[in-house]
Write a structure and sequence with these properties.
This protein has about 70 residues and is mainly alpha-helical. Helix content is about 75%, strand content about 0%. The protein contains four helices and no strands. The protein has helices spanning about 1-10, 15-25, 30-40, 50-70. The longest helix is centred in the last third of the chain and has 22 residues, at about 50-70.
């Protein structure tokens, strides 16, 4: 389902973040990093400013965890 979401919206903040989160849960931190970067660079969504702000905080926290795990 996550890969299908990425096919539908390859540059979106949510599919990239949630796929990165899935990869981290599997312990594949190196593979998660590009998806986090893409989520971080995703275009703002009109009318979703509060949600985007929260998602960016989640991205930053997961990215810090990934970088720590990767050393």
């Amino acid at each position: 389902m996550l890969q299908q979401a990425l096919r539908i919206n390859p540059d979106g903040i949510d599919p990239n973040y949630f796929y990165a989160d899935f990869l981290c849960e599997d312990g594949d931190y190196a593979a998660a990093l590009p998806y986090l970067e893409k989520a971080r660079r995703a275009a703002a969504r009109p009318g979703r400013e509060v949600a985007d702000k929260g998602r960016h905080a989640e991205i930053a926290a997961l990215m810090a965890k990934v970088k720590q795990k990767l050393g």
